[in-house]
Amino acid sequence: MVIGADTIVVLGDDILGKPDNKTRAEHMLQTLSGETHQVYTGVCLKWIEKHLHHLFAEITTVTFRDLDENDIAHYIESCPPYDKAGAYGIQDWSAVFV
After folding, report:
1. Entry's Pfam families (predicted)?
2. What percent of the residues of the chain are helix, what percent strand, and what percent coil, each to the nearest 5?
3. Residue 42: beta bridge partners?
4. Using CA atoms in the order 9, 14, 18, 23, what is the torsion angle rounded to 10 degrees?
5. Which residue of 2, 74, 82, 86 could cross-link 16, Cys pair, CB 3.0 to 4.6 Å?
6. How far is residue 3's CA from residue 11's CA, in Å, rounded to a whole number?
7. For the residues of 9-54, what is the DSSP string, one character each?
8. What does the domain layout of the chain look like in residue ranges?
9. pLDDT, tens only, 34-82
10. What is the CATH number of domain 2-97?
């Protein structure tokens, strides 16, 4: 079985992928501060031997509290966000943002 998945964060008309540097991560988190956004995750399951596949997507609505510079700096240092859409993973320390 092969499993593939990816996630994007959407705020208004803006799609936030994975930040490629600290400045971009800071900007993403500042943009999400105090805002409600959607997190889209698409998944594909493929059972090669049986030529079967299943595709699905989930949408989650998340509201961040207002974040200050210290919150953002601490998160980026503690949980590097460079592999996370929107510069955060809800399973990480960023759960305190909601």
Report:
1. Maf (PF02545)
2. 35, 40, 30
3. 6, 57
4. -130
5. 86
6. 27
7. EEETTEEE---SSHHHHHHHHHHHTT-EEEEEEEEEEEEGGGTEEE
8. 2-97
9. 999 999 999 999 999 999 999 999 999 999 999 999 999 999 999 899 9
10. 3.90.950.10
